[in-house]
Design a protein that fits this description.
The protein is α+β, with helices and mostly antiparallel strands. The protein is built from six helices and 15 strands. The chain is about 20% helix and about 30% strand. It holds the Pfam family PseudoU_synth_2.
């Protein structure tokens, strides 16, 4: 795909088209355009996407459109992968990267990366439900109870909760085990990084300071 873009004249530096895919260029600080759109060379990319409902976190989606369709072509074709998954009906914060160690660090159960969600419930939230989520609930196929590290009441039908285990459908299953049902779910933070005011379907690069708030040390050459 990159070779095709180059040979068709889509790649330019300072307005000059470079259509030889064998040409050697110094990537440090390289700024270029693809089809007239400005880009900067990055050894690895770290992307924050506010995932809308109805998208699959997969490179081979089966029932819904994939989240990669929300990214511009130069990002999609360089092989960025989601750092974990959100259900097609779950919205909110999704990190993507082409840095394998970063993806592993974000998804490894041993890292216990905290992820915070806001869940809208079918029935009113009770004190017993909040207590159960804090103390731990036993899910099917699990041998030990799972507890949220923090649970707060946001409204009569809404809670904010933080988990660190990353089990399959964990928030939905925990709320069900506590006697309620999740009707809507949005992820609002990962590690020490909040979603912010990014609109649904929009993306942006993470800044170096934001990367520092995550449990991963970016290599010195990474940008």
């Amino acid at each position: 795909m990159c070779r095709k873009l180059i040979v068709t004249g889509a790649f330019a530096i300072d307005g000059v088209v470079h259509d030889n895919p064998r040409e050697s260029l110094d990537p440090r600080g390289l700024q270029f355009t693809l089809d007239g759109e400005p880009w900067e060379y990055r050894e690895h990319v770290y992307v924050l996407l506010n995932k809308p409902e109805g998208y699959e976190c997969s490179t081979s989606p089966t029932h819904h459109e994939g989240v990669h369709s929300l990214l511009p072509l130069p990002l999609a074709v360089r092989g960025v992968q989601p750092a974990g998954r959100l259900d097609h009906d779950t919205t909110g914060m999704l990190l993507l990267s082409d840095d394998g160690p970063f993806l592993h660090a974000m998804m490894s159960p041993r890292r216990h990366v905290p992820k915070r969600y806001v869940a809208t419930t079918k029935h009113p939230v009770t004190e017993d439900m909040l207590r159960a989520l804090r103390d731990g609930v036993l899910l099917r196929d699990e041998t030990e109870p799972l507890a949220a590290t923090d649970v707060t009441l946001a409204s009569p039908h809404e809670i904010a909760m933080t988990i660190t285990q990353g089990k399959y459908h964990q928030v939905k299953r925990m709320v069900a085990a506590a006697g309620n049902r999740v009707e809507g779910l949005v992820r609002i933070a990962i590690g020490g990084l909040p979603m912010g005011n990014l609109a649904l379907g929009e993306w942006r690069y993470l800044s170096p300071d934001e990367l520092l708030s995550l449990p991963y040390e970016v290599p010195a050459s990474g940008k």
